[in-house]
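[Protein data]
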Amino acid sequence: TVMLKVYDILGNEVATIVNEYRNAGAYEVEFDLSNFNHHPSSGVYFYQLRTTNYIETKKMILIK
């Protein structure tokens, strides 16, 4: 299972972008704000990619 989540600067979960099984490979996903009930404001966010054996967290900047 692959899970990709976005968190705000306080660590609150903003969105779950991916939460499903995927075969090994390269993928692209789009953080589409129109799919969410609330629209995150511009600022610093963190995204976390989790698989069974791997976790990586990176910083991103959202500019509207």
Summary: The beta strands are 2-7, 13-20, 43-50, 55-62. The chain has no helices and four strands. The chain has a mean pLDDT of 88.
